Amino acid sequence: MLDYKIHNQDEGQDYLVLIHGLGGNSKIFYKQLKQYKQEFNVITIELPGHGNSPDINNYFGEFTSKIAAREVLKTLDYLNIQKAHFVGVSLGTIIIHDILQIEPYRVISTVLAGTVTRFSTFSKILLFFGNLVKNFTPYMWIYSLFARIMMPKSNHKESRLTFVKEAVKMKRKNFLGWYELCYTVEESYRNVQEKAYMVPKLYVSGSEDHLFINPLKKDIEQDPNATLHIIEHCGHVCNIEKPKEFNKISLEFLLQSKEALKQAT
Fold this sequence. Notes:
This protein has 265 residues and is an alpha/beta fold. It has a single domain, classed as Rossmann fold (3-Layer(aba) Sandwich), CATH 3.40.50.1820. The protein is built from twelve helices and seven strands. It has helices at residues 33-37, 65-78, 91-102, 121-133, 139-150, 157-167, 172-180, 185-189, 192-195, 213-219, 238-241, 243-264; strands at 4-6, 15-19, 41-45, 84-89, 107-113, 201-206, 226-231. The radius of gyration is 17 Å and the shape is globular.
């Protein structure tokens, strides 16, 4: 069972599931929880290899992001939650895209921040370099370097330090296992538009999310239920860097989706 926490449970409220990024944990949502809890029953889930969730080598066969997505769904099954709204950041967006391919009918709506749909040529070069040195280099050196490249500006500092601080708690084998999955990111988004075209999706990215924003813009062009909101002068982890704008736009979207579901039923 994945490590999870139910933050509030009010009868009649929709559930909202928060999924963190690589190396982080649910603490990255500390600037959202108070407002989200006023409108939703909030559940935070720690992905495999993070927090007190099982290590990635505890699963049969080769570990994949789809296994992680199914573990999230199994956690919701255990809690008897059939449908929920989802908010994901970075790696969390990849897991949500997998969920949208596996069981799209369980997703009422989703907010995806710092979304990764595929890697640019520059990103692939970085991954290749990391792959060359990962077996004889401290994993935190690789993580810190990638965090610096991904979030290079002074206004990205809080986000960068937050993730690095939490990543120290991660086991080397778990980090390297997730690192290997970077090469399969495109598979997580490949059939989302086909299988989850009815699910409302709000993509929120910082204008300075230089590794991922351009591929994202192109990839979601043909999705009729996808909306892109760009936060100016903001990097990859926009929910930490610009929480007021992120909270406002994400809550408006989630509440609109919540009301639409109520009217439909």
